[in-house]
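Anyone up for a design puzzle?
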């Protein structure tokens, strides 16, 4: 089977980590064909747009995209390219795994294996209705939570638990204070959880969840929460296992899915071959799962682990003296 995916090489270190990732995927012979499309600064320079129509058409046509980090210029236009992509394709589920890896600069080199499932389209993070008073002294923003948005993200989390053999979902909220918005999310989550008697459901207030993650992250399996809380918690989880260089992300909707490294463009090291490609490679593994190739996804993750264990050509952030392509070649040799 051949599958065409949209590939967005990105800005800063994006092209380097994308080339490394495609090198590994090609070595695996997973039957992928690439349709390259531009977004971010490269697209702005060539077309005058951050998200050209041709790129949107490519994602719409292929339904799957692999994306490197993009730069949203300061100033006018939309607040974030990533947020805009989520809105346009209704990518309602943000899925962020955090797993311990060997030979990383991590507080938890073992024991962490959790997934944060974050609602991706509404809530405080969407910054709806932003307004600054004429005197500049008062800023307001609307926080909207819907039954539909809450139901589909919680159901996604429970279905993910069943599909991957996980046994527990923790619903994270602030319903003790935000009784309307977070209260609705918790109410709907309880209704959905009742339909999954085989999956244990826990509830945690968001501040307690953060404390528990720092103290005993091994107690968590899947976390499901609202947009802003999920944005914060997922980065906290990345910090538990070595940082954003090991943090992939999937943005899933009914009609499209975009897989990415969640870190930034790191312009300070762009073009120097120092970038760690693991986050995008792990995003590619999520993509292979999504495409119905779980055996290939497992092979890719195991090859990354084996390369880390061997300390083979590791990039400087991992304590090695290798470069991006050498690291990718070391991983490719193991798949």
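Challenge accepted. My sequence:
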């Amino acid at each position: 089977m051949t599958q065409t995916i949209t590939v967005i090489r990105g800005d800063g270190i994006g092209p380097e980590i994308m080339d490394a990732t495609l090198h590994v995927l090609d070595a695996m012979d997973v039957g992928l064909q690439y349709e390259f499309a531009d977004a971010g600064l490269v697209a702005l320079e060539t077309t005058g747009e951050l998200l050209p129509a041709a790129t949107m058409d490519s994602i719409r046509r292929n339904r799957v995209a692999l994306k490197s980090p993009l730069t949203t210029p300061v100033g006018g236009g939309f607040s974030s390219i990533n947020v805009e992509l989520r809105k346009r394709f209704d990518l309602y589920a943000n899925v962020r795994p955090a797993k311990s890896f060997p030979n990383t600069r991590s507080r938890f080199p073992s024991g962490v294996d959790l997934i944060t499932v974050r609602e991706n389209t509404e809530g405080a993070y969407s910054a709806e209705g932003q307004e600054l008073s004429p005197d500049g002294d008062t800023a307001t923003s609307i926080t909207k939570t819907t039954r539909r948005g809450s139901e589909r993200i919680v159901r996604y989390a429970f279905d993910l638990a069943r599909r991957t053999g996980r046994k527990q979902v923790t619903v994270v909220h602030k319903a003790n204070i935000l009784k309307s918005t977070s209260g609705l999310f918790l109410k709907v989550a309880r209704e959905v959880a009742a339909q999954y008697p085989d999956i244990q459901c826990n509830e945690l207030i968001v501040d307690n969840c953060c404390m528990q993650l720092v103290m005993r992250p091994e107690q968590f399996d899947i976390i499901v929460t609202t947009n802003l809380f999920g944005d914060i918690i997922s980065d906290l989880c990345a910090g538990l296992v070595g940082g954003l260089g090991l943090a992939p992300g999937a943005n899933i909707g009914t009609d499209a899915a975009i897989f990415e490294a969640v870190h930034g463009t790191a312009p300070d090291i762009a073009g120097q071959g120092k970038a760690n490609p693991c986050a995008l490679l792990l995003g590619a593994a999520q993509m292979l799962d999504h495409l119905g190739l779980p055996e290939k996804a497992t092979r890719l993750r195991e090859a990354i682990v084996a390369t880390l264990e061997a300390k083979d050509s590791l990039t400087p952030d991992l304590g090695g003296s290798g470069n991006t392509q050498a690291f990718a070649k070391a991983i490719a040799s193991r798949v």
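A detail worth pointing out: The mean pLDDT is 95.
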